[in-house]
Amino acid sequence: MVGGDPPRPGPTGSDSPVHVALRTTDVDEARAFCRELFYGPLHMNPVGDRSGFAFSGDVVTLGPITVGEISYGADVHLSIADLEVAYHVLAPLAGALRSRHRGATVIADQTRAAVYRPVGDIDLEWPGDCRLLSVKVDRAALERELDAALDQQIVTPLLLGASFDLVEGPGRTWAALVRLLHSELCSTGGLAGQPRMAARWRDMVISGLALTVEHPYGEEEPAGLQGPRRPRTVKRTLDAMHAEPWRPFTAGELAGIAGVGVRVLQEAFRQHVGMPPLAYLRRLRLDGVHAELSRSDPWQVNVSDVAYRWGFTHLGRFAGAYRQRFGVPPSQTLRERR
């Protein structure tokens, strides 16, 4: 281990980067490292001869994004069930791997990245000569980015393509941005280590990914895949809620932001968003709490503190709404993610 025990990532939205590195020939230690920094239910096992196993991982966390340069030194098989809380991209820097996700098989190499949605099992055949960038983006962050950028309703989880080009177009630029960010945050003294610059870089990675991956919201896509266009009143209200989800908005305040009456705004939301404004705000807050609990240390984070931070003032009603949306109490999410 480089630098002792891995520090825990900061809360979603944190502008302070965290760098953790590990070099080991111990399979269990490597598996625990990947579970700690990426996903708890990840399964990794060497295939065949283990004598060449030499894990190398350099991982940086910056709020809602986690970027790691990972290699194993020996052939391994990885599997993981639903990611639930994140979208993920694997972009090889050397070698290639075979990826299966949601019925699609992708050969990811230096010309093509593999993309994973929050729902659907992932199965990877990872050769020993494959070294790659593993990029995790919190689900709520990417969905907020697309939702804010478009004037139409999006389906969640996002209907992303299974891969994208790394040689030409936006994918080349995005991959270069991620490589530079990772390199800067793994060293010391650079501009990327400054919180204000790190925050801007973080936002560029998220917005760049939203513009790079294939999704059914572009003008070139069949009209049947596009959501209904949203009026400006709805768009203004959504922008305000996404900017300050913790703010104690009332129906009247939201209507004032939209410039219409309460009933008019409620009807517009039912038609173009599928629920009333305050119901959407509650879901936005619940998703934010879920994302933060899913990546937090249960010894350092208190459920009630997180709930208050996201605008919930009545913990009993919050717990009931959380269980209804995610099927488990918030305390269980906090326990199980580690």
UniProtKB/TrEMBL annotation:
It comes from the Bacteria. Coiled coil: none annotated. This is AraC family transcriptional regulator. PROSITE patterns: HTH_ARAC_FAMILY_1 (PS00041), HTH_ARAC_FAMILY_2 (PS01124). One of its GO terms (molecular function) is sequence-specific DNA binding. Residues 235-336 form the HTH araC/xylS-type domain. Keywords: DNA-binding, Transcription, Transcription regulation. It comes from Paractinoplanes rishiriensis.
